[in-house]
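Fold this sequence, please.
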Amino acid sequence: KSLWNDVRALGFDIREFGKNTVIVEGVPAELTKANENEMLDKLLEGFKNNQSDLKLSKHDNLARTLAKNAAVNPGTRFSLEEMNQLIDQLFACQMPNVSLNGKPVIITYTLEELLQKFDR
């Protein structure tokens, strides 16, 4: 229950249904294709796993876990429209140049650096 407000702030609409049960009535728009119950389970499990490792607020920890679980898997095929939406969403982020793990998402090269990489 201590996480309810943070989970709701991420876009989940949940309500209590008994002592140890919740009903998921809505999920963030980005997760409409996902299994809501599985995603919520992964979210809470990831929160527990990250709690001691990271010095993040509850909200940031949950947001990080949600982002990792909702990430696009390698090899996923997209239409041109979907690719453009992903790029727009990427650049709407606070830090579009790095992943949650600090790995580069975007690398910028000068023309000279590109030519050098291709031995030209």
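The mean pLDDT is 78. The first strand starts at residue 13 and ends at 16.
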